[in-house]
Design goal:
single chain, alpha/beta, Rossmann fold, 2 domains, 15 helices
Length: about 375
């Protein structure tokens, strides 16, 4: 029997961490063939060559699409999307997958989606219907939704939005967030293990910090990271573990400021481009609080019962659970928010939070739908009108 070929496209460390469980499910199924395409930051020396993590996990990378320019200006990002679309056109012609699987809202995924759409290859999309009003990701996510045929969403309100965009309810599956699976099954390190692995003494009080640029903001990125660093100075008893910004417009400016700050505070600050999935989750499990504007603070951190300070508008109006304190990008607002998550009663609240779909089976559920869904005529979409 011919195996159904599922092509998984990944361009960033964070996205791969969410896709890895599904990739393993596909790889282990005798009726499916996994195809892996690495692109974007995975292939960049500047961003840590994280494709190596994919290979260390036992996956074969079938194709690589070089698309990331050294410029992270809006013009540079737009040109990167164009290069990616050209590269994916060739790759998909060679691989001839039955389904292309994408996750989220990155510009690398947009390039792949455009190529799959024109090639009439069915597209499955994870984490549609969500909102991040402070970033161009919002528009990218909804655009991919309109190009996709099969939709895997994480919550009821996300399913409603995808249908509102004109997608048939029969094509939208509320399965939960696949990143939860790894969190539920992972065996966690002790603090001593993490410190030895990093070769850095974190102690019992440290913050895990990731701050990305707000890509819809016209200016002030440099000022914002400065405000965050000033706020962190108010908590000298806490060590700081930074993972750097991604390749969005303005990311390099943020990373330069973090490097400068770390060089002046070597005993207190550890920063890295990428911790990798295992170390990142271990750090999250052991930290006092998660600070920044990464989506991991809204999805992974609550599962590990960690309080979160969410800064600015990048994740504005995105679904969250757990104990997430939103604040503005000014120093005093950040400082006040950090104080609020350090209150003694926060732990009690987090222990009572209910998390749906946290059964460790999200990836298996997605794989089974990809395996068994009837693809006949699937690319001939009809707009679903709300009644």
């Amino acid at each position: 029997m011919k195996k159904r070929k599922i092509c998984v496209v990944t361009g960033t460390r964070a996205e791969y961490g969410l896709l890895a469980g599904i990739m393993k499910e596909i790889l282990d199924d005798r009726e499916l063939q996994l195809q892996v395409v690495a692109t974007g930051m995975h292939l960049s020396t500047e961003f840590g060559l994280t494709y190596k993590e994919i290979e260390r996990d036992g996956f074969h990378i079938d194709e690589r699409v070089e698309m990331l320019l050294s410029s992270d200006t809006p013009v540079g990002v737009a040109k990167s999307i164009g290069l990616g679309t050209i590269g994916f056109a060739d790759v998909l012609a060679r691989l001839q997958p039955d389904i292309v699987l994408l996750l989220g809202d990155r510009f690398e995924a947009l390039a792949a989606a455009q190529a799959a759409l024109v090639a009439k290859i069915p597209l499955a999309h994870i984490h549609g219907g969500e909102i991040t009003e402070g970033a161009v990701d919002d528009e990218i996510r909804h655009a991919i939704t309109k190009m996709a045929q099969i939709h895997f969403v994480s919550a009821p309100e996300h399913k409603k939005r995808v249908i509102q965009l004109g997608e048939s309810p029969s094509m939208v599956f509320e399965v939960g967030a696949p990143g939860m699976d790894y969190i539920m099954k992972m065996k966690y390190w002790s603090l001593n293990q993490l410190e030895n692995d990093l070769n850095f003494r974190l102690g019992n009080k440290f913050f895990l910090i990731t701050y990305h640029p707000e890509t819809l903001k016209e200016e002030g990125i440099d000022d914002e990271i400065g405000e965050l660093l000033s706020a962190l100075d108010f908590f000298p008893d806490y060590k700081l573990l930074f993972t750097k910004a991604n390749s969005d417009a303005g990311g390099r400016d943020i990373n330069q400021r973090i490097d400068e700050y770390a060089s002046k505070n070597t005993a207190r600050v550890y920063c890295t481009m990428s911790l990798g999935r295992e170390r990142y989750l271990n750090a999250m499990n052991l930290c006092t609080a998660v600070i920044g504007n990464s989506s991991s603070g809204l999805f992974e951190a609550p599962v590990l019962r960690k309080p979160v300070v969410n800064i600015g508008n990048r994740q504005k109006n995105r679904f969250r659970f757990g104990f997430v304190t939103d604040c503005q990008t000014e120093r005093q607002s950040i400082q006040d928010a950090i104080c609020s998550v350090l209150r003694p009663d926060v732990g009690k609240y987090l222990s009572q939070v209910h998390i749906a779909h946290a059964d460790g089976k999200v990836s298996c559920h997605i794989k089974n739908i990809l395996k068994n869904f009837d693809l006949a005529g699937i690319c001939q979409k009809k707009f679903y009108d709300l009644k």
